[in-house]
Specification:
The chain is an all-alpha fold. It is built from 8 helices and no strands.
């Protein structure tokens, strides 16, 4: 089902149709497909597939995808909470979602978590832990940690 959504979204072998892509993504998401929920969240976040931008609905889909274990959606929830987009601004919630994403992903959001620890955004300020986090991210090859 997810693959059919991709085909209709990008016109691969079929005529491109956002509404049909959304229908297939919703069906796949109901059956637990993480990337389908992720695609739906981004459709609402970025006003794709014929939808209007709706951060609140995007956050609902981010939660659905995150609940299914999708690390990028967890990171997106961290951003939404940090910026107050679609949810109440919540720096602690932002740090919590960023940590979950990092744990699920293993590396990619270390820089954001490091900044939270360095600056005390939503968490107790801990510069030593921030440095250690970046060192660990560099060891596993996180592109954002190189510099």
């Amino acid at each position: 089902m997810f693959n059919l959504g991709v085909c209709f979204e990008f016109g691969q072998g079929v005529r491109q149709c956002g509404a049909t892509a959304l229908r297939w993504y919703r069906r796949a998401s109901r059956r637990g497909h993480t990337r389908a929920a992720f695609q739906l969240s981004h459709a609402f976040w970025w006003a794709r597939l014929g939808l209007q931008r709706d951060p609140r609905r995007a956050v609902r889909w981010f939660h659905r995808a995150a609940g299914l274990g999708e690390p990028e959606s967890m990171g997106d929830l961290g951003i939404a909470h940090h910026e107050g987009l679609g949810v109440r601004k919540d720096l602690e919630g932002s740090a919590r979602w960023s940590r979950r994403a990092r744990a699920a992903e293993g590396r990619g959001l270390a820089p954001r978590a490091r900044h939270a620890l360095q600056d005390g955004e939503g968490v107790r300020r801990n510069p030593t832990r921030a440095r250690n986090l970046m060192a660990a991210a560099r060891r596993v090859g996180a592109a954002e940690a190189r510099g």
